[in-house]
What does this fold into?
Amino acid sequence: MLFGLMRRLLGEHRATVWGIIVLQMLQTAGNLLLPTLNASVIDEGILPRRTDVILRLGGWMIGLSVVQVAAALGAGYLGAAVAMKIGHRLRRELFAKVQAMSSQEVGAFGAPSLVTRATNDVQQIQTFAVLVFTMLAAAPVMGIGGIILAIQQDAALSAVVIAIVPLLVVIMALIVRRLIPLYRQGQALIDGATRILREQIIGASVIRSFVRQDHEAARFAEANRKLTGNNLQSALLVAGMLPMIMIVVNLSSVTVVWFGGHLIQSGQMQVGALTAFIAYILQILLAIMMAMYVFMTAPRAAVCAERIQGVLDVDPAIAGPSPISPTGAFVDGAFVEGAAAGGISDAGTPTGGTVEFRDVVFAYPGAETPVLAGISFTAGPGSVTAIIGSTGSGKSTLLNLLPRFLDAVGGEIRFGGRDIRTLQLDELRGRMAVVPQRAYLFSGTIAGNLRMASPAATDEDLWLALRRAQAEEFVRNLPNGLNAAVGQGGAGLSGGQRQRLCIARAILRKAELFLFDDSFSALDYATEASVREALVPALESATVIIVAERISSIVDASQILVLNDGRLVAQGTHPDLLRTSRTYREIAESQLALDELP
It folds into this structure.
């Protein structure tokens, strides 16, 4: 998988890769020719004391060294540049893939694992690519060329090479075989440590409030200990490689000098030839060491490539227009793929921001019972539709079906007269504005966060939105006002402030549909009433759907949907539901004073 991934990524860099190979060949050729020239200098220049030969061959050696250095620098630069471009492309592809995933698919990997794959794993691929370009491309040529030139110097002594190469290959195979499972386990341990650290940073106040610092410190220490132990094992294996190789190198050098000395003494070999032979032996060993170092890094890179490819291979379940027909329905408590869930008509004429749910069913993969079933209602422009129900009744799930954060498995959802599965995701989501249940802000400034909904909004537009969201006063009191810094997640702001900024962000967009997912929960009753009153002119022509926990937030809604265990058990206005729905009246009685009930 590693080399398949590399082959795909290098497709657009073929010319540069060939340039690296040519430069590496020039560098390697220089390395191989220098010992032969050095032998000639010794045998033909130094021993006979011929200065002209020394100068002439020395000049060639200097010129060859200059070419060799230039080629090495060029290959190193191009190799690093291509490796960085590979990393850039991988991070871009991973980011795009994660953005296209549904919340279920992101949850299957986990946020810490996705962060590790986009950072640490990509870095390992980059490191491996640099090693391939700087070492692996030259190692075969250097090794084979060294063997040929060593045999040319003396065939008998070349038996030493034949003996040591298999030994080094066996050492490399044994170490690599042990490293692969260690590296695979190590990447999983990095995910675990990252997850625990992330939880402890985000949940620091919870940990302190329950005085669980010691417990959490012990939990992280255990994860850290396992990761350290794994890294130590792999590091010891890699560190043990060098001493073993040096033992082989030193023994082979001693053997060559021993037998070479006898050959010189008997007149069968010249001093320069022995010097060249030793240099070629060292070059052969260096080539093997370079290859071994690359192959030692390959297991970790291979594991990282598997993890990266695992994300890239995900086929997002929600990825644009899909057939109008429902994918299935629950029949007698069991999900039947392809079964019809209700009558579905052909696409009609556009009806602005009208929302229609027709026998909608939603269930998570593998679930025995649906989260939502048989949901049917219509919400039109200029109306406010409220959704209320007990915890776990499916209110937020229903809302998440409209922007297709989740996809219904049965029935039909229509927006503006068209099935939402026939619309491009950007088109669908561009026509609506969402205030999520969790009021989330991004690091930057208040103005930058607000302009996510409308990049072209002027400062006057921002202040108007803030005024309607009852956030103008506290923003003006902040240092720098609209340019006040915002921490990740809205750190430094209260829950109510974050919620009001999210409301202001949503109403900046001139949308046909506004979705409020329990968006007033952090506000006190007076502030909530002021916000709802101020929002009326901004939302009067749009379709508004609100998920609420408070009855007081929805008493004036055009219609109220009452959910219970994923079923729509009642719908109507507040007065009607108090008379006709036992579930709604129980909720109202638990929240409103008795004198407020008829």
